[in-house]
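A favour, since you know our structure tokens better than I do. Would you make up a two-line entry for one protein for me to read? Write everything out right here, beneath this request.
=====
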Amino acid sequence: MKIQRILLSTDCSEFSAGAEREAINIAKRFNAELYITSVIETNPEFTALAPDILERMEEKMRRYLEELRQKAAKEGVKTEFIIHEGEEPHRFIIDEATKKGCHVIAMGRRGRKGLMRLMMGSQTARTIGHSPVNVLVVPRKAEIRFKNMVIATDASRFSEKAAEEAIQIARDTGASLYAIAVTRPDATPERIKESEDALLRIKADSQKEGIKIETEHVRNKPHEKIYEAIIEFAKKHNADLIVVGSHGRTGLSKLLMGSVAERVIGHSDCAVLVVK
């Protein structure tokens, strides 16, 4: 993954602080262009009835983004910011990423409207579900050092793509890789072999690039506990980034993302790169 253009989506709240910080750091590291966007969620009725409030909201947002732009400039990162107004913020985010030719969208796990009981905000979920480019989800306290990265694979085409991306990032950053496959108690011998073969492919491809890698196959985990195995594996290896595919083997096209990916994003302490 050649990270040449990054779109940072922020709602100008503390929930976006991690994404803001890490997007600037990654842009500096890869000498990438950084675009920043923020969306004022509104509708025609509100715009018509309260134009003064909307104007104040936009001005406050503009000041915040200007401070963020200056912060990036101190790190030698050139940025420009774009403010949008309207319904369904994720559509503006995706349109902006597409228009700018961005390779990744960086955003927080939740927004200011997110409830504590919800592990991932709806706009983050919708952006991941509809975006044609990779999405980097960064919790507030997460730091991406590109030291230890985890690849989660289920031998699906989605996780195969994720593995390819992770190997390229490790090659470019010098990170160590740790690959995990998790199979359920009802997994057939064929399914178990597919997972083992996937791990062998990842290991072989990584070693060709001179990347240090370790693999692990965890068996007999119920589907609803697979995400826990991945997160425990990441913690054990002090991972600062988990790379997953947007869907798994059982992913349906009508779903925004696979349930395992959603749970990993919702519960992980470190950043998660969702590969499309």
User: Anything to note?
Assistant: The two ends are 12 Å apart (CA to CA). The first helix runs from residue 17 to 30.
